[in-house]
Structure formats: C-alpha cells, structure tokens
C-alpha cells in the first residue's frame, strides 16, 4: 500500500516536470496572466467533466458539504490562485534550473505546518530524508562564482591578467561590465565592478569562498510559492479526507481557483480569450499535465504522510533541472552532485 502511495507521488513528480517545461516554453508566447487564467479555466472544465461523469457532483453531495471542508476548500483555492501568478512569473523571468529547485524547501516547511494543521509528524529517518532532499534543492539553487578560463601569468601583483569569461546562463544582469582579474600574489580575484562590489574569490587561489544564493525576482517568488504550498498541501489532505470524493474536491478547488483569475483576465484583456482557439492544443496539453499531476498527488495523500508525499513529488526538481539542460541549454553539470544528494534523501524517505 505504501509503495502505491509513492508510485502516485512519482506520477505527480513526472507530471510537474512536464508542467514546468511546458509552462516555461509557453511563457515566451503568452503573458503571465493569460497563461494562468486560460489554463485554470481548462483545468476547472476538465475536472468538472470528470466529476460529473463519475457522480462526484450529485445534488446530495453538493448540498451536504461539511463546513470545515468548505473552509479548507476556499483557503486552498485562494492560495493556489495566488501561487499560480507567482509561479508563472518566476518561470518567466528565470531559468528552470534556478527557480524550480527552491520548491524543495516545501517538504521541510511541511514538517511544521502539517503538525499544526493535521497533527502529522514523520519518523526520525523520514525527517532526515526530508532534510537531505531540501539541502540538495538548496545547493541546486546556489549561484556559484562565474566559470572562467584564466590564463596563467607571471605578471607582478596588480597587473591585469588576460581572461576568457565563460558566461553562465544567468549572466545577463551580473555581467553588465566585462569581468576583470588581477593577480594578488596568492590567487586570482574577480572584480565585477570598479568600486562598489566586494571581490569574489575564484577557486584556485588560497582565499576562502562559498557559493552565494542568487537573490533575484524568480528565486524570491519561488521561495514564496514554497512557503504558501506548505500551508495549502496540509489543507489539501484535510479537505481530501472530508470531501465526498477525490474528484469532488479536485473539481471544486480548481473551479474556485479559476474564478478570480478568469475574471481578472476578462476585465483587463478580454481579447486574450481568443487564444483558446488559436493555441488550444498547447493550452490543453498543459492543462492535461496539471490534471493528471493533481489527481496523482491527491491519491498519494490518501496513503502517505503529507510531508512524505510532497517530498516524493518534489523529486520533480531533478527532472526539471535535466529538462532545463536538454531543452533550454542551461548549464547544470556542477549541480549533478546535489541531484544525487536529493536521490539519497528520497531513498531515506522510501526506507522510512
């Protein structure tokens, strides 16, 4: 039974990697509000159709909904609407391999929120696995010093050394000026600006160095997404147990999520709804990925602790980083050890 829960979580992980890649691709062709609203509308229509066909929307179940269920439903729908805009904006402004790893923080935050909301607490080994997965995601998200090819020089200290910078994928903002290197007698120091920026030591010198998190709009937004999801994930499990059926909850939540974002698009850009006709296959594909991933995720919550289910689902970080390399040509090779770290953390959770 436990393995079935992890199988559903794996299905959700694969679905979310497909969502990340397809939304990243679509962000170059749609505005954030168009993509969020139109996909949310299709999500609601697809899940409502499935609920109607399965009997999840019969009159009796809709008129006798538990008050606690309705409250959890509305809160999760509101959070998902806000998260939709934040998530899409993050994918729009930053590479997949920079933003998506921050979602790995959600399982650790869930240790606290799930205990407060639904009184769940993982075992010590499971908790260790969650921590290892999150650390792997953290290191994946770090911005290491720029990769450069430095030509050796016998010039005296202070002399500018000839270099060939190998610009990283996120260098558009950081490299407004051409990097300059000067010898200091011990190592090589990178001077990104002439006056204000402190020097950053390059590996090879004897100065201490540590990779820094790249605080940009996309990463900050994705951190906010991780925090909000740590709340909504616990409420998802609570509402799923109170709901008449899984499809009843899925359809109603996505329906309530779609209402504000669709109305916002209707008021601000009504012509955007014509995109449903011109790009229907693309939008439908994204919606199908989301529906499948959401159902797999809810099924995993029926079997696993919410922190385990979300940690397993967040293994999609590994797939999304690899997709970022293959599809969007992002540099990931120095991140491979941290990908393996996340795999090790997932193994600990499975053994727990």
Tally the beta strands. Answer: 8
Overall 3D geometry? globular
Major beta sheet summary = 4 strands, antiparallel
Strand order of the largest sheet: 3-5-6-7
What portion of residues is helical? Answer: 55-70%
Q: What is the number of helical segments per DSSP (H or I, 4+ residues)?
A: 15
Oligomer: single chain
Supply Rg. Answer: 23 Å
Strand content: 5-15%
- Secondary-structure element order, N to C: HHHHHHHEEEEHEEEEHHHHHHH
Average pLDDT, rounded to a whole number, is 75
Q: How far is it from the N-terminal to the C-terminal residue, by CA?
A: 14 Å
- What structural class is derived from the secondary structure elements? alpha+beta
Describe what this molecule looks like in 3D.
The chain folds into two domains: 2-143 and 215-351, no CATH class; 148-210, no CATH class. It is 65% helix and 6% strand. It has 15 helices and eight strands. The protein has helices at 2-26, 32-54, 59-63, 67-93, 96-99, 106-118, 124-140, 171-174, 217-242, 246-268, 275-278, 280-303, 306-313, 316-326, 336-351, and strands at residues 142-143, 148-150, 160-161, 163-165, 180-183, 188-191, 200-201, 212-213. The strands form three sheets. The protein has a four-stranded antiparallel β-sheet, with no helix packed on it. Strand 5 and strand 6 form a beta hairpin. It starts with a helix and ends with a helix. Residues 144-155 and 157-211 have low confidence and may be disordered.
């Amino acid at each position: 039974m436990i393995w079935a829960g992890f199988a559903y979580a794996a299905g959700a992980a694969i679905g979310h990697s497909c969502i990340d890649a397809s939304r990243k691709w679509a962000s170059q062709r749609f505005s954030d509000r168009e993509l969020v609203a139109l996909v949310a509308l299709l999500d609601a229509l697809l899940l409502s159709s499935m609920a109607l066909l399965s009997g999840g929307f019969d009159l009796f179940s809709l008129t006798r909904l538990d008050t606690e269920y309705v409250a959890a439903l509305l809160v999760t729908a509101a959070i998902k609407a806000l998260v939709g805009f934040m998530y899409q904006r993050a994918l729009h402004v930053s590479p997949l391999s920079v933003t998506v790893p921050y979602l790995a923080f959600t399982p650790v935050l869930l240790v606290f929120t799930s205990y407060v909301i639904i009184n769940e607490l993982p075992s010590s080994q499971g908790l260790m696995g969650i921590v290892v997965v999150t650390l792997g995601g953290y290191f994946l998200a770090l911005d290491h010093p720029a990769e450069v090819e430095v030509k050796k020089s016998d010039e005296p200290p202070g002399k500018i050394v000839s270099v060939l910078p190998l610009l990283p994928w996120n260098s558009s903002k950081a490299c407004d000026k051409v990097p300059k290197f000067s010898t200091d007698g011990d190592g090589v120091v990178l001077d990104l600006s002439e006056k204000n920026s402190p020097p950053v030591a390059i590996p090879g010198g004897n100065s201490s160095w540590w990779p820094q998190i790249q605080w940009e709009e996309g990463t900050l937004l994705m951190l906010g997404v991780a925090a909000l999801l740590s709340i909504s994930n616990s409420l998802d499990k609570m509402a799923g147990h109170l709901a008449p059926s899984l499809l009843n909850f899925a359809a109603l939540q996505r329906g309530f999520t779609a209402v504000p974002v669709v109305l916002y698009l209707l008021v601000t850009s009504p012509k955007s709804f014509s995109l449903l006709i011109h790009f229907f296959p693309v939008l439908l594909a994204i919606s199908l990925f989301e529906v499948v991933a959401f159902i797999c995720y809810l099924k995993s919550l029926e079997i696993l602790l919410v922190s385990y289910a979300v940690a397993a689902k967040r293994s999609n970080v590994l797939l999304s980083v690899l997709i970022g390399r293959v599809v969007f040509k992002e540099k990931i090779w120095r991140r491979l050890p941290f990908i393996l770290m996340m795999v090790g953390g997932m193994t600990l959770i499975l053994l727990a």
